[in-house]
Amino acid sequence: MALIPEFLVDHVNNAFPKNVCLVAVCMDDGYAQVSPRGSILVYDDNTLGMWDRGKGGTHDTVKDGTKMTVYYRNIELGVRGGDGTLPAGGVARFYGTAEVHAEDGEVRERVWNEMVEQERKGDPEKKGLAVLIRLTRAEQLNHKPLSELSGVPKDG
Question: Rounded CA gap, 99 and 83, in Å?
Answer without folding.
Answer: 34
